[in-house]
Amino acid sequence: MAEASSAIAVESLSKSYQIHERAPGFGAMVRSVFRRRTRLVHAVEDLSFSIAPGERVGFLGPNGAGKTTTLKVLSGLLHPSGGRVRVAGFVPQHREVGFLKRITLVMGQKQQLLWDLPPAETFALNRAIYGISEADFKETLGELEDLLGIAAVATKPTRQLSLGERMKCELAAALLHRPEILFLDEPTIGLDVAMQLSVREFIRRYNEQRRATVVLTSHYMDDVAALCPRVIVIDKGRLRYDGDLAALARSVRPHKRIALRFGGPVDRALLERVGAVLSFEPGRAVLQVPQEELRPAMSWLLSQTDIADLTVEDPPLEEVMRELFAGEGRAAEPAGDAGEAAS
């Protein structure tokens, strides 16, 4: 693993917990005082990957896969049980000042804004914590206000802001010190579609302007598809896939979908001669065909039916991920070239 050229280098990372277990009831509670039963839980096991400076990487997995645990180890909030981790050249668990000034962790389900005070107060507090000069603070805050459109809300009490406004102010507070590595854990959770688009565009612009490294976890697959050419997938704390997002979709679901809009009536049986009919209604249909049969299928449809519009699409990423974790698709092996053996 080439640590010198990596923004993030993880080698054989493991994180385990001792979990206390007891049956319900008063008697079990009393017995547990004298004899506690524990179970070892492996949140992350033998996880390895590297991420180059400036990459945008989606970090995916089902609930309980170990994504948030991994991000907390990478940001220094948790100590690993085993393995080696370096972020921006630092060992995260040491929490050195130079390390903290280079990273930020944004968690969509937690906030750093002070509830009864306006976001501007949190901005000023973060300026003092990170030792940002007044000139740099004004310049960066001005850029963030322009990019996020928060100038009008930064002086209102946080409790009076909408969820979308709070999320934008959270991002601004987390980026005032101009970090070069962003750990984003569900940054669009609970936001409406328009606000999700706004946050995605901001993350993309920040990445491009600052060449910042972005590690994103999200259950909204549109976030990942829009921002992350590369994905690292873990399940039960172990690496399942590391590589190109499009290649993952092809390996799990090697099909294409043809969305059709017709200019006249069409017999469903005619369409079934081409591929699987996923939906059929008056004037519209969606077919699924193997990738290698796409061209002849399109040629046949154009010659045999009255088509007003035709669109070729990949299967939804949500379906790809569901099949991957259910083990229904083809086995997706870690990609060796996309970032050495890969949340």
Task: Please give a structural write-up.
The protein has 343 residues and is of the alpha/beta class. It folds into two domains: 3-249, P-loop containing nucleotide triphosphate hydrolases (Rossmann fold); 254-314, YebC, transcriptional regulation domain (Alpha-Beta Plaits, 2-Layer Sandwich). 35% of the residues lie in helices and 28% in strands. The protein has twelve helices and 13 strands. A six-stranded mixed β-sheet has the order 5-6-7-3-8-9, sandwiched between helices. The chain has a four-stranded antiparallel β-sheet with strand order 11-12-10-13. A hairpin with a 2-residue loop joins strand 11 and strand 12. Helix 4 runs parallel beside helix 6 (163-175) and helix 5 (134-148) runs antiparallel to helix 6. The longest helix is centred in the middle third of the chain and has 18 residues, at 193-210. The two termini are 18 Å apart. Mean pLDDT is 87; it is low at 328-343.
Quick synopsis:
The protein is α/β, with parallel strands linked by helices. It is built from 12 helices and 13 strands.
Integer count of domains: 2
User: What structural class is derived from the secondary structure elements?
Assistant: alpha/beta
Q: What string gives the helices and strands in order?
A: EHEEHEHEHHHEHEHEEHEHEEHEH
What is the CATH C level class of the largest domain, in words? Alpha Beta
Radius of gyration: 24 Å
Spatial shape: globular
> Under CATH, the topology of the largest domain is which?
Rossmann fold
Number of strands: 13
Name the CATH homologous superfamily of the largest domain. P-loop containing nucleotide triphosphate hydrolases
User: What does the main sheet amount to?
Assistant: 6 strands, mixed
Which segments are poorly predicted (pLDDT under 50) over 5 or more consecutive residues? Answer: 328-343
Strand content: 25-35%
| Spatial order of the strands forming the largest sheet | 5-6-7-3-8-9
